[in-house]
Amino acid sequence: MRPPTHILVVNGVKVRRPVFVISAPHSGADLVARAIKRTPGFHITMGRAAVTRVVYAFARRPSIAGSGGAPAVLRDAFAEAWQVRPGACAECPPACREAGGIIGSGPCVNAASLTRFGDATPDLIYSAQVLLKAFPDARLIQVIRDGRDVAADMLADPACLAWFKPHMLSEDAEFPNPFLGLRSAEHRDRWARMPSAGKAALRWRGAVRLSATLRRELPPDRLLTLRYEDMIAAPDTAVDAISRFLEAEVSAIALYGAPAPRPGSWRSRLSAADAGLVEKVAREELTRLGYL
Q1: SUPFAM superfamilies per the record (predicted)?
Q2: Contact 20, 141 (CB under 8 A)
Q3: In CATH, which superfamily holds the domain spanning 17-145+228-261?
Q4: 188 Rama sector, left if φ>0, alpha if ψ -120 to 50, beta otherwise
């Protein structure tokens, strides 16, 4: 049976071809979301509590994400997150409000001109397969970045470091565990002893493997892959690709002046030991993607 063209209605608008921006942590999904978020007619959320709770539940428990009810749970979360009402932006994290250029409580979009929805919640990549079931006509944009630069940013982010504490890998943890980058329980003790740089490399490696799977499974009209380094070097070219993919006029202005670390900054931010460990753990993926 052909899937329906829309699943739900938000603020009187049928949700068609929603856009989801996914990546490993600190890989540039926020930059893409920033450009789309400031495009008339689009409502892109980032890190709303209703979505974040579901995303991390699915990431830590892949069996939940694989259940028959997972798509409905995710749709309900987005139905709540996408509501446009007075004060709605006050519920968003600072990164989302900044990306939309919002001062105060919003809302960040004009409900009367709303036509498309989307989301770029951190770690949404671990829910990619559920997204495709929840929204059969979804468009995915994934961003790839040098794993060494990613590791440098993760090591400077307390929220990322919190996931590396030993108790995060409990005795009832499920394997394989893409969220932490582990394939089996046999690696549990090694992971617990590993420096944070190695755990960051594992997280990046697990995410880019999911990205590679999506590239194999989805046609070009459903998935667009961008490199962070190319976006920084040529914002106009990247935005042109996004515009063609979404069939919308996305402006590159939002990318100019956006806070974004320069490619290769890992050389001054990672110690020699940490850089060597990241390259050792993720050598296969760094090589395949042309970073080594």
Answers
A1: P-loop containing nucleoside triphosphate hydrolases
A2: yes
A3: P-loop containing nucleotide triphosphate hydrolases (3.40.50.300)
A4: alpha
